[in-house]
Amino acid sequence: MQNRLERIVFGTDSRAGRLFDVLLLWTILLSAALVLLESVHEVHVRYGRWLLAAEWTVTILFTIEYAVRVWVSRDRRRYVLGFYGLVDLLAALPTYLSLFVPGTQALSIIRAIRLTRVFRILRLTTYTREASHLLLALYASRHRIIVFSFAVLALVTVFGTVMYLVEGPAHGFTSIPRSIYWAIVTLTTVGYGDIAPRTAFGQALASAIMILGYAIIAIPTGIVSAEIARQERHRRVLSCPTCGAVEVPETSRFCPQCGAPLEAA
Beta-carbon neighbour count of residue 248 at 10 Å? Predict the structure, then answer.
């Protein structure tokens, strides 16, 4: 029974497994819809009890599902501490947490992350492969992005302090932290407008920060794009005799999807 449940819960190569995954996806969508409807005051007042009953029903189902996944998993530690294991656990916790902290059931929207299983269920390996390439590019660029982030933090601190000295509390810049907040909003070209400079020098400085913001926003994109381009130069297409052609690192000797030996295309 344990082996059969494992094939149904974790696999997609059987009719029962595909049916289970499809039902799971619909249940996740229903759960997300319940959270959204719960936040609408008119709906909550009229159908609050029904929504609560449905939420607890979904939570109990997710709890049972998680327990079954842990039980049938061959490597329980790997599943529990893995990405999907943690997401599956967090999918059930908010409703229980709401018993002690009212309002936290809204965190149940995290269940929407579980919809990423649709790529595996529908065998959309191209999308998952491209997503992994993007994540690898972000990870490889982390040091440059961190340095860039600290540089931006230093800039907004300087700009905010200068603006605090120029404008002062009379124009809404009541403290350096509040002025730094203004600098961040201006540099990122968000422009809430809750604080605005009034003096000529302050407006000139704000204009310079806005123009600088357009140049700064493009830098992280360029960093990641350059890393993606570098990775593309080191990739090749290999032919898998079992599941078809896939793009894998040049050093790979086996298919990352099915483990079969790869032959150069």
Answer: 19
Give me the DSSP letters along 31-51: HHHHHHHHTSHHHHHHHHHHH
Centre a 10 Å sphere on the Cβ of residue 227 and count the other Cβ atoms it contains: 21
Domains of the chain plus CATH, in order, are 2-123 (1.20.120.350), 142-233 (1.10.287.70), 235-264 (no CATH)
β partners of residue 248? 236
What pLDDT score does 265 carry? 40
Q: Which of 35, 17, 13 is closest to 25 using CA atoms?
A: 17
240 closest CA partner among 222, 263, 218:
263
Q: Residues 210, 189: contact at Cβ < 8 Å?
A: yes
pTM above 0.70, yes or no: no
Query: Helices 125-140 and 200-233 meet at what angle, rounded to 10?
Result: 120
d(CA 170, CA 196): 11
Q: Give the confidence band of 183 by pLDDT, cuts at 50, 70, 90.
A: very high
